[in-house]
Amino acid sequence: MKKKLWMLMGLSLVLVALAACSSDTAEKAGSSGSVYPNKPIQLIVPWDAGGDTDAVNRIAAEELEKVLDTTVVVKNIAGGSGVIGSQEALSAEPDGYTILAVHDSMAMSELTGQAGFGFSDFEPISLITSTYNMIATNPENPWNSMEDLVADAKSKPGEISYAASIGSISELEPALIQTEAGIKFNIVGYDGTAQRMKAIVANDVALGSVSIVAGKDYIEGDRLKFLGYTGEERSKDFPDVPTLKEQGIDVVSAANRGFVAPKGTPEEIIKKLDEALKLVTSSENFITKLESLGTDVNYKNTEDYKVFIKDLETDMEESLRDSELID
Questions:
Q1: I need a surface site. Which of 98, 140, 241, 282 has the fewest CB within 10 A?
Q2: pLDDT at residue 192 tops 60
Q3: Radius of gyration (Cα) for the chain, nearest Å?
Q4: DSSP run (H or E) holding 14
Q5: Using an 8 Å Cβ cutoff, are 257 and 56 in contact?
Q6: Confidence (pTM)
Q7: Residue 34, pLDDT score
Q8: Mean pLDDT, the chain, as a whole number?
Q9: What angle do CA 57, 63, 66 make, to 5 degrees?
């Protein structure tokens, strides 16, 4: 009788242990994708509220909420051309409930020494958009095209000023133009887009890269002049402005925006976020809103985004070295 009792007690303990293991496994599976998400997701946007990047990511967040059926809270953490906010995401729990909005400036910041980390320290999720820029100047300046500008710059190397946020994509564009056109600018640093715009409009600085949306009102008010477009083809909004390539400068440059997650975020969660963003970027509502911002939808899945990042970093490093912005 005692032997049977001990056997029953042993069996009970085994069943309890198995149940605990099963519960633990289910909990882990749930946290890594099967029931994800079951609480709000924080999207860190490491730039000021109100800018182009913030606008694009808020639209994406609204659409992502619908697809994932959960709240997506946008948290702006500005500073250091995206470095400060990215640092917070870098140290966040890799559970899928913190994701980071990024663009090319993450690679730029690492290459120029502005940050001690880069894309390789995160898990890429998806690329979602690309925004091409106009090269703008004050109407009082004598140039009416990039061809005029290049001819003038060749006669006075290093004298024509170009506004840029150091360590960001706005510094890369003049670097690319310099390399391809064989000229030299005086690159002047500004903290952000708003400060650069004010400086160009006031003619405190001769040139700068501006988005179509940011520059549209100034163009209509004759306070800015567009010299060239950084896209592969002309902008639908300003079809009279030729691309840089049409003007003999073999440069296509964009702010390519996507999402990454903290290193170690489970593959199942990355996959679920990627699939959700594919639906977001195919939404007519998303496409229409992005067009109103002068931004192109450019979805790339996780694997394609990884290849895109690798190519971006290689091309960017080469251009920065050619322009002597890095050793």
A1: 140
A2: yes
A3: 24
A4: helix 2-29
A5: yes
A6: 0.81
A7: 58
A8: 88
A9: 145
